[in-house]
Design goal:
This protein is mainly β. The protein contains two helices and 21 strands. It binds calcium ion (CA) (4 copies).
């Protein structure tokens, strides 16, 4: 009886959730912005595909240089295919990077300049699909085309976000995911931990990116290296999980204002949403591999990778999503 009641309550909650979410899909006439949200039929993740009004004045990446998602619940399916990575080149799109380490690298033909006039010192914005309670942070790295050959073969610098100096942040972290079979992916890190990726009933396909969809992906295992920040995933009431917001310096972290122009940035130092919101980045935050501040006049390449390694039985992997990468100038 109790179980039945619980089931009924759960069904009611699910229904209300869909109802509320569907209301968000109504086009918003006030800003001429046709919004839409996709509720993944599984309810494991809410993938909003709201977009900004198009404007010719706004620049997007010119080239996709690499896309290497981690094994995750969307691997081998929509939002996580190579064409999804292409969708953020030259415009607004939608791509997920999967769990910790999964990454994308994009290139700009014309440099993003660390211009003195840029508002709040912000040089570019990255829009994900974050909202209050759904922050799935990505770490941003930048590269200057120092040797001027158009290739991303120079030095990467991390943009140090609010957790860079957190004592629980791992620098030089490395994590290997292993393909066991289509329903099992295991992992092992350089801290002596290991485990098996959580699966949920809603995504039945292989979570390991398969050669049929990712021709260059190593078929047995994949290794990622970088910085891992502590998770802010918590079960704030039974069965209800939230990903709390980080202060600044991570993608897919802060709420978005679709009614502002995409090249009018948020001030990352205030809790309010200025401009288009989303996540504003300053080249002033760049540090080298030793943590020393470096001075960058301009950059041509941006890399984003998922910054936390965590998952819940309900919403699955904490996975960074990207809709747009836009220079302020
Ligand atoms: Ca700047
Ligand atoms: Ca997200
Ligand atoms: Ca180069
Ligand atoms: Ca702000």
């Amino acid at each position: 009886m109790v179980r039945r009641l619980r089931y009924l309550l759960f069904s009611l909650f699910t229904f209300l959730f869909v109802l509320v979410s569907c209301e968000e899909t109504e086009p918003d006439d006030t800003d001429g912005n046709t919004g839409a949200s996709i509720i993944d039929s599984s309810f494991t993740d809410t993938l909003s595909v709201d977009t900004f009004p198009e404007s010719q004045a706004i620049r997007f990446p010119d080239r996709l240089i690499a896309y290497v998602p981690s094994p995750n619940q969307f691997a081998n399916s929509t939002y996580c295919l190579p064409q999804d990575a292409e969708s953020i080149i030259g415009g607004q799109g939608f791509v997920t990077l999967g769990g910790w380490g999964g990454y994308i690298i994009v290139g700009f033909n014309k440099a993003i300049v660390n211009h003195a006039d840029n508002p709040y010192g912000v040089d570019f914005t990255i829009i994900g699909n974050a909202y209050e309670g759904s922050s799935e942070p990505g770490i941003v790295m930048v590269m200057q085309d120092e040797n001027n050959n158009g290739l991303a073969d120079d030095t990467w610098y991390e943009l140090s976000g609010s957790e860079y100096k957190n004592k629980s942040t791992y620098h030089d972290y490395s994590l290997t995911y292993y393909y066991i079979n289509d329903s099992t992916v295991t992992w092992k890190d350089n801290k002596g931990d290991e485990g098996t990726l959580l699966r949920n009933g809603y995504h039945q396909q292989s979570y390991y990116p398969l050669a049929a969809n990712y021709p260059n992906y190593n078929t047995d295992s994949v290794i990622f290296t970088g910085t891992r920040i502590p998770s802010k995933l918590e079960e704030d009431s039974p069965g209800h999980w939230v990903n709390n917001t980080f202060d600044y310096g991570y993608t897919d972290n802060k709420p978005i204002n679709y009614s502002a122009a995409l090249n009018v940035p948020d001030n990352p130092e205030t809790p309010e949403t200025e401009g288009c919101g989303g996540d504003a980045f300053k080249l002033e935050w760049a540090v080298d591999s030793m943590g020393n501040t470096v001075s960058l006049d301009s950059i041509h390449f941006i890399k984003v990778y998922t910054a936390v390694f965590d998952s819940s039985p309900v919403i699955g992997d904490v996975s960074c999503e990207i809709k747009a990468i836009v220079p302020v100038k």
